[in-house]
What we know:
Layout: H1 2-22, H2 29-49, H3 55-78, H4 84-103
Helix pairs in contact: 1-2, 1-3, 3-4
Transmembrane segments: 33-50, 57-78, 84-102
Family: Belongs to the drug/metabolite transporter (DMT) superfamily. Small multidrug resistance (SMR) (TC 2.A.7.1) family. Gdx/SugE subfamily.
InterPro entries: EmrE-like (IPR037185), Small_drug/metabolite_transptr (IPR000390), Small_multidrug_res (IPR045324)
Amino acid sequence: MSWVMLFFAGLLEVVWAYTMKLSGGFSKPIPSAITLIAMIGSVILLSYSMRTLPLGTAYTVWTGIGAVGAFIAGVIWLGEPLTTMRIMAALLIVSGLVLMKLSGSH
């Protein structure tokens, strides 16, 4: 169950990163509210997952899901460039997440 909570915490991190971009520096109320709600939900789910997962594993996976997810959201919805170097960087992050998961006892 901890891994499921951690996965959703990571997805909420993607939501808040994306809506923060849309908020225009917290000048638009609806994206700003979504950002804050997603931030709080993400941290709460992360904290629950840390009840049983090691700190380093949970935090690394959480930030990795957020980083790669924000990259994908930026490319799909914000028209950010999809270059070979950016794809390679995302693949390296995913590789690190897989290694972190495989190296843990949970």
